[in-house]
Each structure stands twice: as C-alpha cells, then as structure tokens.
Amino acid sequence: MRLLVLSPEQTLLDMEVSVVDLPGAIGRFTVLRGHDNLISTLNEGIIRYLPMASAADDEKEMLEIDGGFVEVRDNVITVCVD
Fold first, then answer.
1. How many other C-beta atoms can be found within 10 angstroms of the C-beta atom of residue 49?
2. Pairing status of strand 76-81 against strand 2-6
3. Domain range for 9
4. What is the CATH number of the domain that holds 29?
C-alpha cells in the first residue's frame, strides 16, 4: 500500500509500506492493506511505518507531526500535516 505525507509546501513522504501506525484524535490506530475507507483527524505525535522492502521484524521508521488529518482509501494512506 502507498503512504503519502503532504504538507502545504511539499511532499514529505511517498513510499510503499506494509503497515502504518497513526496518532488519531481518539487514540493510536494501525492501517494494514485492505483497511476500510476512513477519514480521521490526527493529533501531534509520531507516524510509525514499515517500508515494504523491510523484513517483518525490522523496526518501524518514524515521522513526527504536529497534527493534521488522514484519508485511507483503496490502499492509499494520505496524511495532510500542519
């Protein structure tokens, strides 16, 4: 699945991933391939993701955000950050 992280100025991240953990407004949640469509606000926190080429036991990479929102649709996770 594809993870896009966008700011008003630039694309911060555009890559294929196998799992993404997000700091949702009512708690952290995980998105895997085939996840139902959703839109959610995001709190300040850390996005954790595992690049597709990584082994399942590798540590997730991280990106700190100040908040924003996410849309999950058709195996594309689009995060818009402040």
1. 22
2. parallel
3. 2-81
4. 2.60.15.10
